[in-house]
Amino acid sequence: MALIEISGLTKRYPRVTALDALTVDVQSGIVGLVGANGAGKSTLIKILLGLVAPTTGQVRILGLDPARDGDQVRARVGYMPEHDCLPPDLVAAEFVTHLARVSGLPRAAARERASEALRHVGLYEERYRQIGGYSTGMKQRVKLAQALVHDPDLLLLDEPTNGLDPAGREAMLTLIQRIGTEFNISVVVCSHLLGEVERICDWLVAIDAGRLLRADRVAAMTVQRDVLAIEVDEGTDELAKGLAELGLTVGREARLLLVPLESDETYDVILGVVAALDLPLHRLDQRRHRVAELFTEPEVVDVVR
Amino acid sequence: MSSVEPARAGVIHDLGYQRYTGPRLGRRYATLSLYTHSLRTAFGLGRSGKAKVFPWLVVGLVFAVAIVAVVVRSQTNVVFISYLQYPDTVGVPVLLFLAVVAPELVCRDLRAHVLPLYFSRPIARPDYALAKLVAMVSAVWLLLAGPQLLILLGGIFAQTGGWRGGWHEFTDFLGGVAYSGITAVVYASVAVLVASLASRRALAAAAIVGTFLVTAPVVGVLSIVGGSLRELAPVLNPVTLVGGVKRYLFHTKVGLDLGIYGPMYVAVALALVIVCTTLLLARYRKAGA
């Protein structure tokens, strides 16, 4: 059974169509949901949580219909909103305990799991401090802890690295990866930064203007052949011509020439041409395809960093 | 703790994750949890010392009034403040309590955008609004009924009628706490609605005091005009409205002159509560989306 099954999902607001006949199945694991701001990610999350009814189409999450069994879905799903959502004058442990009870955990279990959740996000020592005194990074961790506190089967994280510095982003992504792999909880990470989530995700779902662009395993996307990047100090055009004459597909990227790496012989062929033309070779290295390059539609350009 | 590097905020402790296999209680439990949390918040419990100061100042004040009533009664054997008079006697502290606590319960969640965290859990929007309202009603009722209980205890010892007198004292007390309940429901539904419409706590507090105070002179002016207006005008102010309900329901002999309009006071009070609750639910249908 797929974790999330979406078929023909459309959501129209009076002025905009947020989701347009979206059909995609999402398997368990860590799933990156990428799209520019306004692509329909937040609307999709609200529909998954049963907070917004779809105009047409079907959604099943954890085998349940959120439009009908909203509270059952919400008891099994943890949600981390994009924006600030913490009361500054409460103590973190107290607040997370309270939310655990609202999720349906009995009092003692709520207190215990709140401490655990805060420990897992790395806030054990600071948990009896008021949230207002926390740094942005610590607040993001509290937000993650409250989503995790009732041991959900699925986490929906909306832009979890929002407002964090590079080190904070790195720590947050590592934490999410741990949750997905070691805690064995499926995670959907929404982001407008493809480059950021591709590292930790098993699956990527890219949407734009409410439509599906592409959904696939990250492994399947990166399996494509690597390329060689060649840079010469002069004579780039001649080199390109020479390589093309030998039947290689040559791409240009600024001062670089990109040639698909067919086999180890490709290196010899290139070096042969460079030597024959007597060109000053500056660099010749192997580049891995980034997933970002696989979304070639022009609309995705602003998605990619 | 490793001796190589001191533990820092960023360190993720590796102690393994345990799945939760215990019971998951549903929407009713969730709503009840929010109710108890809000009721505790009303008295500053589970919060910083600063947040406790004001509620407990008011609690101290209303109990002090009750203690005075008990002492005067035991010394002079004259009923100084009756159970039905008591809620009106402490009207000002109760109003201040409403002005501070209602925004505390409602505005903080709105202002800090906490609502998405609630609505992504097994609690629905009407559940949230009603839990907050009922918590406010309970807090005001406790604030009034607690001291009334103290007056009852004092009264039972002071009265000289034996079992009969004690029973009489007790029925008077029941009437008093019922009136406290009516007061709490009317005041709280107005206060919570007003607070939910204001975004800032200070603004909400001012607006609550405003709705109670601004309507008072209106009542006064209309009463001077005379005629049936004198008997009708008090419905415009929550305080005099509740006073009129008391006059009609408990047949008290002092206070407002209602003429033939007694039942109307009950109807207006009921309508006010229904309208305020409906508007509150409407407010939360969209809030924090």
Task: Give an overview in words.
The complex is a heterodimer of chains A (305) and B (289). Chain A has 305 residues and is α/β, with parallel strands linked by helices. In chain A, 33% of the residues lie in helices and 26% in strands. In chain A, the strands form three sheets. Chain A has a six-stranded mixed β-sheet, sandwiched between helices. Chain A has a four-stranded antiparallel β-sheet with strand order 11-12-10-13, covered by helices on one side. In chain A, strands 2-1-4 form a three-stranded antiparallel β-sheet, covered by helices on one side. In chain A, strand 6, helix 6 and strand 7 form a beta-alpha-beta unit. In chain A, helix 3 crosses helix 4 (107-120), helix 4 (107-120) packs across helix 5 and helix 9 (236-245) packs across helix 10 (265-277). Mean pLDDT of chain A is 86; it is low at 297-305. By secondary structure, chain B is an all-alpha fold. Helices cover 73% and strands 0% of the residues of chain B. Chain B has helices at residues 27-42, 49-76, 86-89, 91-111, 115-119, 125-158, 162-197, 201-225, 228-232, 238-250, 262-286. The radius of gyration of chain B is 23 Å and the shape is globular. Mean pLDDT of chain B is 88; it is low at 1-8.
Short description:
With 305 residues, chain A is α/β, with parallel strands linked by helices. Chain A has helices at 41-48, 70-76, 92-102, 107-120, 136-148, 166-181, 194-197, 218-222, 236-245, 265-277, and strands at 4-12, 17-26, 30-34, 56-61, 77-80, 154-158, 186-191, 203-208, 211-217, 227-232, 251-253, 256-260, 281-287. Helix content of chain A is 33%, strand content 26%.
Helix segment count of chain B? 11
* Secondary-structure element string of chain B: HHHHHHHHHHH
- Average pLDDT of chain A: 86
- Per DSSP E runs of 2 or more residues, the count of β-strands of chain A stands at 13
**Spatial ordering of strands, largest sheet of chain A:** 5-6-7-3-8-9
Number of helices of chain A: 10
Portion in beta strands of chain B: under 5%
- Rg of chain A, nearest Å: 24 Å
Distance between the termini of chain A: 34 Å
Strand content range of chain A: 25-35%
Largest interface in this structure: A-B, 54 and 41 residues
Net shape of chain B:
globular
> Could you name the ranges of chain A where pLDDT drops below 50 across 5 or more consecutive residues?
297-305
| SS-derived structural category of chain A | alpha/beta
Indicate the overall shape of chain A: elongated
| Biggest sheet features of chain A | 6 strands, mixed
End-to-end distance of chain B, in Å?
A: 43 Å
Q: Decide which structural class fits the backbone of chain B.
A: mainly alpha
Give the low-confidence spans of chain B: 1-8
Give helix % range of chain B: over 70%
